[in-house]
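Please decode residue identities from the backbone states below.
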């Protein structure tokens, strides 16, 4: 027994029981606590009396108080607060118990008067009680303590609260069951409201001086495009104002009334000025459930005319029907001064699709473009030049059963494609912090190709917040806002109060035709299983186990249907437990997708395989890197060691004998005559890599073509982009491999193997060139399929140990999309990837939750600024500055269109000459005029640059690659490679300005065989390095650029010329025709 020295019983060290010792100790604590309380109260009373006496004598609170009798520095005795904490927690529990009792009474009364729902849209009447019960549960969970009294009291309150929540849950389940038996509420078939677009056509700064309009426009451009800081904008604005004032005072000391008004109206704050100038996009800030597996979106509501948004306090989403709600807290308190406002913990900014359509229809000329796009003969068109020539759109019907074209009625009918992708906003792909954000964007397919993919014409629906990608079907919640609007745009449509074409108003209907993204994102948005799961293909019924990825029997694959896709989604959605959902998913490989709400959307055909990812980042990258061995450390095979084994002793155990037999079977063998291995991933040797590097340095290409790393295969060049793999695979490496493995005279075993590898490689490149042609036909698609099957079967034959990847399987389905949707450049994912690059370049603070908002608002402001010049309300003085504005954006967005717009896609072939000085003609040029029977001028402009159909051609002394031009010349049925030596512009005696190009053509090469002609899809040929005499041609004879590589073959100096027109048309009679319509 312990010795007790308590003050309560004055034991003076006497031995007492443990229970008595603890009781005496508690009593001592209570006594000490009470004495401390008394001392505190005494000090407080004394201070109060002293202050009152001081104030009564006329003193102020700031004066020094008289000396006090109580010693303020005396410390109270040390206290033990355990008993105080126990009492405090018991007190809080008693308050919570009263709240539970009050809520229970309210719920009992509500259950008695609950009634039945009248429609499927009715809200459960006791939802507020459920939210209050969750609040109480949160308070109760925050009270912790090991005291028996506290635990017993908390258990009692928890049991009462659990019983109450159980009643609410059962009542809600019965309510939902009654709702499910009610008929669905019919949707309105006519637009109930008119979307007001009058503000879109309103004049911008109508009563302002043109100087002020230009100044504010300059501020907006610097702030939005070049990201000039606020301090820099203020300085520049002040300096412009000072310059204006000095200019006005230059001619005299007095100012006119108009000048005085100009200076008084001159803006002082750049932020305020830009806000009055730029139209803000309409957006909705959604509250997102912070729970990673949920991420349900909740739109705000507003009370009366208050601008403060109101959000639910807790997430009520149920993953399974009649299951438990999520219950995660959605908001947190934030103080604005003394006002407390509940703001979302996690948010998502969704922009208005209606506002985007209003922006398109308020721009001069855009409606005419969009209406004319689908105005064509519905019969089969060959070749197909755009998405609208494809079979899918020709058979696509609107909600009224008529073809979905603007010519079918007075309303506007427009088609859209949707891009869905995830990216790292911090741009550090190789190392550093990994953050993943998503982007949802749309493109209007009715716009012509030269306008379709400009950043200002693309719609950013929203940026999915990070730091990680939403799991499984949680991505559906972020699609809900845009799908809601698309459902309304399909039926009944949206009526706009006015457009540029229809000032009295117009009904507009929109349809989502295509979803374009890489394989992982495509599977998330469509609700399909991952590409490395058992159900790896969302187009056909092939499985990983049977027949597997190695199966290339394309013509016997069973294609899925939209009906079975939707039935599988319905099965998954109606499952009542997580286990049954998982069972349905294992059976079908399909979850739910928000896109199924679009009744017209084809879940199989409309979620396409993107060629940019599949062909360039997938097949070309995989083939040259992992099959041919385009890597840092090339494979070097050591000498084969022949190992001989003596006869095994016969009396060894069976297990030992099996091991010896297995060792003997592992002895390496090699085909006779082979000097090195051609194992998968180790084909290219170091000397061949050196030759490829030399070809990369010598190959001449035009400046618009994407540059490639000269140290290919080294880690220092980093990760290559899709366009770089495209240029490497279809141009640089194609030329180099034929030179390496076809022009050689060697006839050993390895050379024969490498020649077979080259043919298989060129089958892949030919297939990709045919698929990416800017004009396609059914014969193109069939030829693509034949080349791709030859490639896959060749890989299986040459490298039996290689396992085909999902990209190889999906590549065969692109044949289907070529027939359905036409040329891939009109719908592939390159523009969406450039949009991601634009978002990454917007400055942000790097904080997850903030940078997504910054990028979204920054992109919206930039789009609004770019569309400003095309609106009818733009001031004339600002419209006159369009050339300067476009020059700025062209320098900011280099190659934004040139990688997708080739000359053959442009209807007009205008030639624009840049610069040049008047000078006498050189003798060789004058002689060329004489040979062409053209009267030479005395003096002419000799510029070094000319722009033909949007592409830059220069003289050879300025840029060798840009001077390489394919020319239709003489009686030749095919274009001839030539070099531009002079560009001549002069005024003829008849009056008009004439422009000619002085060229030297490559002469025909006389060789026994031209291996490049064996692969017609490449459009490459050997020509002599010698050039002909100077000839004159008109700009209309220029077809395209070509890539040029000098080489030596059969003792001759030759060049390989590969046409870069990228347009190949095959017809059903198997004749190949090259379109020279550029």
């Amino acid at each position: 027994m312990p010795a007790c020295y308590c003050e309560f019983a004055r034991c003076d060290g006497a031995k007492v029981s443990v229970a008595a010792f603890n009781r005496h100790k508690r009593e001592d604590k209570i006594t000490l606590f009470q004495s401390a309380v008394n001392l505190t109260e005494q000090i407080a009373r004394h201070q109060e009396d002293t202050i009152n006496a001081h104030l009564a004598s006329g003193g102020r609170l700031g004066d020094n108080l008289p000396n006090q009798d109580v010693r303020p520095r005396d410390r109270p005795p040390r206290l033990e607060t355990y008993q105080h904490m126990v009492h405090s927690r018991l007190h809080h529990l008693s308050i919570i118990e009263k709240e539970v009792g009050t809520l229970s009474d309210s719920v009992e009364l509500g259950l008695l008067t609950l009634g039945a729902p009248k429609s499927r849209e009715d809200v459960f009447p006791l939802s507020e009680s459920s939210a209050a019960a969750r609040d109480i549960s949160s308070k109760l969970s925050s009270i912790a303590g090991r005291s028996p009294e506290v635990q017993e009291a908390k258990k009692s309150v928890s049991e009462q609260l659990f019983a109450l929540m159980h009643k609410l849950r059962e009542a809600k389940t019965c309510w939902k069951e009654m709702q499910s038996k009610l008929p669905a509420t019919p949707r309105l078939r006519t637009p109930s409201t008119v979307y007001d677009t009058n503000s879109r056509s309103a004049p911008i700064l109508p009563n302002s001086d043109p100087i002020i309009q230009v100044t504010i426009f300059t501020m907006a451009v610097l702030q939005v495009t070049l990201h000039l800081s606020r301090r820099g904008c203020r300085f520049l604005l002040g300096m412009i104002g000072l310059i204006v004032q000095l200019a006005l005072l230059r001619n005299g000391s007095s100012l006119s009334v108009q000048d005085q008004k100009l200076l008084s109206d001159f803006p002082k704050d750049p932020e305020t000025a830009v806000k009055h100038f730029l139209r803000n996009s309409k957006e909705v800030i959604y509250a997102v459930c912070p729970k990673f597996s949920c991420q349900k979106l909740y739109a705000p509501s507003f009370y009366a005319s208050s601008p403060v948004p109101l959000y639910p306090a807790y997430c009520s989403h149920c993953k399974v029907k009649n299951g438990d709600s999520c219950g995660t807290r959605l908001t947190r308190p934030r103080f604005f001064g003394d006002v407390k406002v509940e703001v979302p913990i996690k948010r998502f900014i969704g922009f208005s699709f209606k506002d985007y359509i209003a922006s398109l229809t308020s721009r001069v000329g855009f409606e005419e473009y969009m209406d004319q796009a689908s105005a064509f003969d519905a019969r089969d068109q060959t070749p197909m030049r755009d998405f609208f020539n494809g079979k899918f759109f020709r058979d696509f019907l609107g909600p009224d059963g008529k073809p979905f074209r603007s010519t079918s009625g007075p309303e506007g009918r427009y088609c859209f494609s949707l891009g869905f992708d995830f990216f790292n906003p911090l741009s550090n792909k190789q190392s550093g912090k990994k953050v993943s954000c998503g982007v949802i964007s749309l493109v209007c397919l009715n716009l012509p190709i030269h306008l379709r993919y400009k950043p200002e014409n693309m719609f950013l629906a929203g940026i999915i917040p990070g730091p990680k990608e939403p799991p499984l079907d949680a991505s559906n919640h972020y699609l809900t806002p845009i799908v809601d609007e698309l459902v309304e745009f399909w039926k009944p449509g949206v009526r706009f109060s006015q457009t540029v074409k229809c000032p009295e108003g117009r009904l507009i209907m929109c349809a989502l035709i295509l979803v374009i993204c890489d394989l992982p994102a495509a599977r998330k948005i469509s609700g399909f299983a991952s590409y490395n799961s058992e159900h790896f293909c969302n187009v056909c019924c092939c499985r990983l186990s049977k027949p597997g990825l190695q199966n290339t029997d394309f013509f016997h694959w069973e294609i899925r249907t939209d009906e079975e896709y939707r039935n599988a989604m319905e099965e998954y959605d109606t499952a009542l437990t997580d286990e049954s959902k998982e069972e349905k998913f294992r059976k079908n490989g399909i979850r739910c997708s928000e896109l199924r709400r679009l009744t017209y959307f084809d879940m199989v055909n409309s979620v396409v395989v993107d060629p940019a990812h599949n062909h360039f980042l997938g097949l070309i990258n995989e083939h040259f890197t992992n099959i041919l061995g385009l890597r840092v450390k090339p494979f070097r095979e050591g000498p084969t060691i022949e190992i001989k084994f003596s006869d095994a002793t016969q009396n060894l155990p069976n297990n030992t004998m099996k091991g010896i037999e297995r060792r003997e079977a592992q002895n390496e063998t090699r085909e006779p005559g082979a000097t090195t291995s051609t194992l998968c991933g180790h084909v290219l040797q170091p000397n061949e890599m050196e030759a490829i590097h030399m070809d990369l340095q010598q190959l001449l290409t035009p400046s618009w073509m994407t540059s490639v790393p000269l140290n290919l295969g080294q880690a220092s060049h980093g990760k290559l982009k899709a366009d770089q793999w495209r240029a490497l695979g279809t141009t640089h490496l194609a030329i180099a491999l034929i030179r390496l493995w076809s022009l050689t005279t060697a006839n050993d075993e390895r050379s024969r193997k490498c020649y077979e590898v080259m043919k298989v490689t060129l089958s892949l490149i030919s297939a990709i060139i045919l698929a990416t042609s800017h004009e396609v036909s059914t014969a193109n698609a069939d030829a693509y399929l034949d080349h791709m099957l030859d490639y896959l079967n060749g890989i299986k034959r040459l490298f039996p140990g290689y396992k085909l990847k999902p990209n190889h399987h999906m590549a065969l389905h692109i044949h289907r999309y070529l027939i359905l949707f036409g040329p891939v450049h009109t719908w592939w994912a390159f523009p969406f990837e450039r949009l991601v690059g634009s978002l990454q370049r917007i400055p942000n603070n790097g904080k997850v939750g903030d940078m997504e908002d910054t990028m979204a608002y920054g992109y919206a402001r930039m789009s609004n600024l770019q569309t400003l010049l095309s609106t009818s309300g733009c001031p004339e003085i600002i419209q006159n500055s369009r050339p300067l504005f476009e020059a700025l954006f062209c320098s900011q967005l280099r190659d934004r269109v040139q990688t997708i717009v080739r000359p053959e896609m442009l209807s007009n072939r205008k030639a624009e000459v840049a610069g040049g000085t008047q000078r006498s003609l050189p003798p060789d040029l004058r002689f060329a005029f004489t040979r062409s029977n053209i009267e030479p001028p005395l003096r002419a402009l000799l510029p070094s640059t000319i722009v033909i159909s949007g592409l830059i051609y220069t003289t050879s002394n300025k840029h060798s690659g840009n001077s390489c031009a394919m020319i239709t010349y003489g009686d030749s049925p095919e274009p001839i490679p030539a070099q531009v030596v002079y560009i001549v512009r002069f005024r003829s005696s008849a009056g008009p300005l004439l422009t000619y190009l002085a060229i030297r053509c490559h002469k025909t090469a006389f060789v026994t065989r031209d291996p490049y002609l064996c692969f017609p899809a490449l459009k490459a040929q050997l020509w002599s390095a010698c050039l002909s005499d100077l000839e004159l041609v008109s700009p209309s004879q220029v077809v395209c650029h070509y890539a040029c590589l000098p080489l030596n073959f059969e003792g001759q100096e030759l060049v390989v010329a590969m046409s870069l027109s990228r347009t190949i048309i095959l017809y059903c009679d198997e004749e190949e025709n090259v379109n020279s319509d550029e």
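Observation: The longest strand covers residues 412-423.
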